[in-house]
Design brief:
This protein has about 475 residues and is an alpha/beta fold. It is built from 19 helices and twelve strands. The strands form three sheets. The protein has an eight-stranded parallel β-barrel with strand order 3-4-5-6-7-8-9-10, surrounded by seven helices. Strands 1-2 form a two-stranded antiparallel sheet. Helix 16 (about 375-385) runs antiparallel to helix 17. The longest helix is centred in the last third of the chain and has 21 residues, at about 335-355. It is globular. This is Phosphomethylpyrimidine synthase. It comes from Halospeciosus flavus. GO terms for molecular function: 4 iron, 4 sulfur cluster binding; phosphomethylpyrimidine synthase activity; zinc ion binding.
Length: about 475
C-alpha cells in the first residue's frame, strides 16, 4: 500500500510532492521534510488526484487561503461549480472546498478533482445526510462508505467533526446562537435522537485507516465553534478543542496528516490567544481558521470583518485562512463573491506574512511602490493583487492609452499630485536627492504566493475537457491568464 506523505517524511524520504513544495516556498527541501515529519505542516496529496500541483500548509510557510464553493438545492449546476473552481484558482485560492449540498454531488466532486491543480476538500457528512430520509438514520457503516468513496475519487482533505462529544452538548445551552457549524449541528441532532456517541468519534480509528490508504489529510472540524462574539471562548468551544488534540495524536499514530480547524467569531483581542491555545493543545498541528469575524454587525461586508480577524490569526501562527465572502450569512456566493472574498483574504494572508518577516514577502510591496512612484501604470497593474480590477478602476476616469504615461491620476489631478510634486522638487537643484530603487522580484526569496501573479499553479496535468454523464465540459480556465 502506498505510504502517506507523513509516513514517508518520517522515514527520511524526500517525496516528489515535498520537492515541489520546497521549490514553491523557496525553502530547503530537508526543512520541508522535517516539518511534515513532525506534523507541523501538511502536504494534502491524495494518490488519485492526478492534476494536483502540491502545496504545503504550516505556520513556517507562506499563509495559505482556502475558497469554499458548492451548490445547494436552490442554485448552481455542474458547469457553474466548475466556473467557480477556476475563478477561485485564478484569484489565488491555495485550496478549494466543495461544500455542495444539492444534487449531482458525485459528478461535481469528480469534475472538481479532475480540473483542480489545488487540493480539494469536502465535508462527507453532507453527502451522508443526502443519502437518508432523516439524519438520525445515518449509520456508522454509511459514514465509512461515504468517506471511502470520496477518498477513492481523489479528495485531498476532509473535514471530520469528530470532536463533538455527547458530553459537550449541554455546554452549548447558554449560547446566543447555539451550534452554527452545519456538520456540528447534524451530529448533535444525531446524538440527541439516537442516544449514542458521535459516530465519527466512535469510528475515528477506522476512518484513519481509510485516510492513510489514500493519503487524505484529516481536517479536524470545529463543530462547536462560536457563531457570535458572545459565544467565543466558552466551555463548549474549548472542550471540543481538547478532544481535537486527542484526535490529532490518534491520527498521527496511524500515519495520517492532520490540520485543525478554528473558531468563526472571536473578538479582536482574543484572536491571538485562540491560536496560541490551539497550537499548545494540538501539539503544533497546522491551524486552519474560518475568519475569524471580529464583529457581528456587518452582513454584506463579512469578507471585511473576517479578513481583519484573519490577519491577526495568521500573524499569531494560523497556517491557512478559510475565506469569507460578502454573502456570508446571507446566501450562496457567486463568482463575483468568490473574487471579492479571495481578494480580502489574499490581502490578509500577505499582510501577515509581511508582519511575520517571511523571507522576501515585502519585495512584492516594494516593487509595486516603485512602479507607483515612477508612474509606470502598466507595471503597477501587472503587480496588483487583482490586475483586472486595478486597471478597470483607473480607466473609469482616464481610459485613454496616453494616460498610461501620465504623471497623475484622477484622484489628485495634475496640479495636486504629491508624487509629481516630490519628483519635480528632487529633479531641481536642491537638498533632496533623486530616488532610484528597483526590486528584482525574480531574485526574491519569497514563496510563490508572495510574488505576483496570484493563482500561479502548474496546470500541465489539468485536462482541457472532461466528459461527465455523456456531456463534455470545457470550462473557461483562468489559471494561465
Amino acid at each position: 500500500m502506498p505510504k502517506t506523505q507523513l509516513q514517508r517524511a518520517r522515514a527520511g524520504e524526500v517525496t516528489p510532492a515535498i520537492e515541489r513544495v520546497a521549490e514553491r516556498e523557496n525553502r530547503d527541501v530537508e526543512f520541508v521534510r522535517e516539518q511534515v515529519a513532525q506534523g507541523q505542516a501538511v502536504v494534502p496529496n491524495n494518490h488519485a488526484h492526478e492534476s494536483l500541483d502540491p502545496m504545503v500548509i504550516g505556520r513556517e510557510f507562506a499563509t495559505k487561503v482556502n475558497a469554499n464553493i458548492g451548490n445547494s438545492d436552490e442554485t448552481s449546476d455542474l458547469r457553474g461549480e466548475l466556473q467557480k473552481l477556476h475563478t477561485s484558482v485564478h484569484y489565488g485560492a491555495d485550496t478549494v472546498m466543495d461544500l455542495s449540498t444539492g444534487s449531482n454531488l458525485d459528478a461535481i466532486r469528480e469534475a472538481n478533482v479532475a480540473h483542480s491543480p489545488v487540493p480539494i476538500g469536502t465535508v462527507p457528512i453532507y453527502e451522508a445526510v443526502k443519502r437518508v430520509d432523516d439524519p438520525a438514520d445515518i449509520t456508522h457503516e454509511l459514514l465509512l462508505d461515504v468517506v471511502e468513496k470520496q477518498a477513492e475519487q481523489g479528495v485531498d482533505y476532509m473535514t471530520i467533526h469528530a470532536g463533538v462529544r455527547m458530553e459537550h452538548l449541554p455546554l452549548t445551552d447558554g449560547r446566543k446562537t447555539g451550534i452554527v457549524s452545519r456538520g456540528g449541528s447534524i451530529l448533535a441532532q444525531w446524538m440527541e435522537e439516537n442516544g449514542m456517541e458521535n459516530p465519527l468519534y466512535a469510528k475515528f480509528e477506522e476512518l484513519c485507516e481509510i485516510f492513510a490508504e489514500h493519503d487524505v489529510t484529516v481536517s479536524l472540524g470545529d463543530g462547536l465553534r462560536p457563531g457570535c462574539l458572545a459565544d467565543a471562548g466558552d466551555d463548549a468551544q474549548y472542550a471540543e478543542l481538547e478532544t481535537l488534540g486527542e484526535l490529532t495524536r490518534t491520527a498521527w499514530d496511524r500515519g495520517v496528516q492532520v490540520m485543525v480547524e478554528g473558531p468563526g467569531h472571536v473578538p479582536m483581542d482574543e484572536v491571538a490567544a485562540n491560536v496560541e491555545r490551539q497550537q499548545a493543545v494540538c501539539d503544533g498541528a497546522p491551524f486552519y481558521v474560518l475568519g475569524p469575524l471580529v464583529t457581528d454587525v456587518a452582513p454584506g461586508y463579512d469578507h471585511i470583518t473576517s479578513a481583519i480577524g484573519a490577519t491577526e490569526a495568521a500573524r499569531a501562527g494560523a497556517a491557512m485562512l478559510c475565506y469569507v465572502t460578502p454573502k456570508e450569512h446571507l446566501g450562496l456566493p457567486d463568482e463575483t463573491d468568490v473574487r471579492d472574498g479571495l481578494a480580502a483574504y489574499r490581502i490578509a494572508a500577505h499582510s501577515a506574512d509581511v508582519a511575520n518577516g517571511l523571507p522576501g514577502a515585502r519585495d512584492w510591496d516594494d516593487a509595486l511602490s516603485e512602479a507607483r512612484y515612477a508612474f509606470d501604470w502598466r507595471r503597477q497593474f501587472d503587480l496588483a493583487l487583482d490586475p483586472e480590477r486595478a486597471r478597470e478602476f483607473h480607466d473609469q476616469t482616464l481610459p485613454g492609452d496616453n494616460y498610461k504615461e501620465a504623471r497623475f491620476c484622477s484622484m489628485c489631478g495634475v496640479e495636486f499630485c504629491s508624487m509629481r510634486i516630490d519628483q519635480d522638487a528632487r529633479d531641481a537643484d536642491g537638498e533632496m536627492s533623486a530616488i532610484d530603487d528597483e526590486t528584482d522580484l525574480d531574485a526574491s526569496p519569497a514563496a510563490e504566493v508572495n510574488r505576483p501573479p496570484v493563482g500561479t499553479h502548474d496546470t500541465e496535468r489539468v485536462p482541457d475537457e472532461i466528459e461527465i454523464d455523456g456531456v463534455t465540459f470545457t470550462p473557461e480556465s483562468h489559471a494561465d491568464d
